[in-house]
Design brief:
5 helices, 2 domains, about 130 residues, mainly alpha
Length: about 130
């Protein structure tokens, strides 16, 4: 966030601060991806949302149009229910992030930063990362 605020207004994609912002964003994505693979194994992966959305659409069609095969319908329904919340959260978060950026530029990142700090402190106090989920 600080790098983005310092780089504002971003008018040149090749400016050093713009490149620093991109590199920090890539590093943050790497950390999020590693977290998803190492600690949150029981939930849908949140770093490959294209795959989750595709899976949800396929499952929805399998559920709606597999009238004869009840076993396939049940499996599709179970998978769809597992991906529904992450996909909905992703859509809401993407919309909120875009609106936040339009309204407050990089300062919009203060809200998710504060939320992450609260969750990290709560997790540290309880000694269990699952307590925050």
């Amino acid at each position: 966030m600080t790098a983005g605020v310092l780089a504002t207004p971003v008018t040149d994609a090749d400016a050093p601060m713009t490149i620093v912002c991109g590199m920090l964003g890539a590093a943050a994505t790497g950390v999020q991806n590693a977290h998803g693979r190492l600690t949150a194994r029981s939930v849908a992966v949140n770093t490959v949302m294209t795959g989750n959305v595709t899976r949800a659409v396929i499952d929805a069609f399998d559920f709606l149009f597999s009238c004869r095969d009840q076993k396939a319908r049940h499996a599709a329904r179970s998978r769809a229910l597992c991906t529904l919340l992450p996909v909905a959260g992703f859509a809401i978060g993407a919309g909120a992030g875009a609106a936040g950026f339009l309204l407050a530029s990089f300062w919009a990142l203060l809200l998710p930063l504060a939320a992450l700090c609260v969750l990290a402190l709560r997790s540290r106090m309880t000694g269990s990362p699952q307590a925050c989920i």
